[in-house]
Design brief:
Helix content: 40-55%
Number of helices: 9
Shape: globular
Order of helices and strands: EHEHEHEHEHHEHHHE
Number of strands: 7
Largest sheet: 7 strands, parallel
Distance between the termini: 30 Å
Strand content: 15-25%
């Protein structure tokens, strides 16, 4: 539909899964893309794929949890492509192999999970929002999770971080709405990604079995909503928490 023609979109954690799905959809909508990810190989493969499609793309392998690397990436990307109109705060993960019950948990894991989910969202928004506000236009889409409202056992740190993203989204949306900037939170449920494949087998199977729609979501199911919120068609949507989970849970 080319709803993002001429726009510059920045995606954190964009080399795999939902981030990659968003990159491909936004490229199809006509956006220029700036993508940061810690993993150089899949990032390079995505960059080449997008370039082959004729998309202007700037990609850099860097650590979103490092403020200096984040700032350097934003500066270099905006020099290469122009000021960012759209920010997709997608980078994040749970404790994965260090996942435990809360009673067995440790602060170092809490801090890692909160840093990679909540603080990166705040960090990149802080880097880009002043420019968006000054130009009178911007779209910020923060990737939360249905875990923020379900509160699964063993996901105390992840649920807390993703719930923090919802609160952050609402406060910043209220502040930036008069400046032409929308800010929304998207909360995926079970989606076919590498992270789901790596999660505990029985837990993942139970999650999939509980989806009323009867099928597992794909990255493009999330990317479609991100594209809408990024476009002019999403201009009247801000401060919202949107669950995309096949009806597994709702607000």
């Amino acid at each position: 539909m080319k709803r993002l023609e001429g726009r510059v979109a920045m995606i954190t954690g964009g080399a795999n899964g939902i981030g990659r799905g968003c990159a491909l959809r936004m490229a199809a909508e006509g956006a220029k893309l700036a993508i940061i990810d810690l993993e150089p190989e899949p990032l390079a493969a995505l960059r080449d794929e997008l370039a082959a499609l004729g998309t202007a793309v700037f990609a850099r392998a860097a650590d979103c949890t490092d403020p200096a690397q984040a700032g350097d990436f934003v500066a270099a990307a905006e020099t290469a492509l122009g000021p960012a109109d759209i920010l997709v705060n997608n980078v994040g993960q749970g404790a994965r192999e260090r996942k435990t019950s809360f009673l067995d948990s440790t602060e170092d894991v809490w801090r890692f999970v909160v840093e990679i989910n909540l603080f990166t969202t705040m960090r990149f928004t802080r880097l880009l929002a002043p420019g968006m506000a000054a130009r009178g236009y911007g779209r910020v889409i923060n990737m939360s999770s249905e875990s923020a409202v379900i509160g699964p056992v063993g996901s105390h740190d992840y649920a807390a971080a993703k719930a923090g993203i919802i609160g952050f989204t609402r406060a910043v949306a209220r502040e930036l709405a008069p400046r032409g900037v929308t800010v929304n939170a998207v909360c995926p449920g079970p989606v076919r990604t590498r992270a789901l494949e790596r999660s505990a087998g029985e837990e993942a199977r139970k999650a999939v079995a509980s989806i009323p729609a009867g099928f597992l979501g794909e990255p493009q199911d999330i990317a479609g909503m991100v594209a809408l919120l990024s476009s002019d068609e999403g201009r009247y949507i801000t401060g919202q928490t949107i669950l995309i989970n096949g009806g597994r849970w709702w607000l």
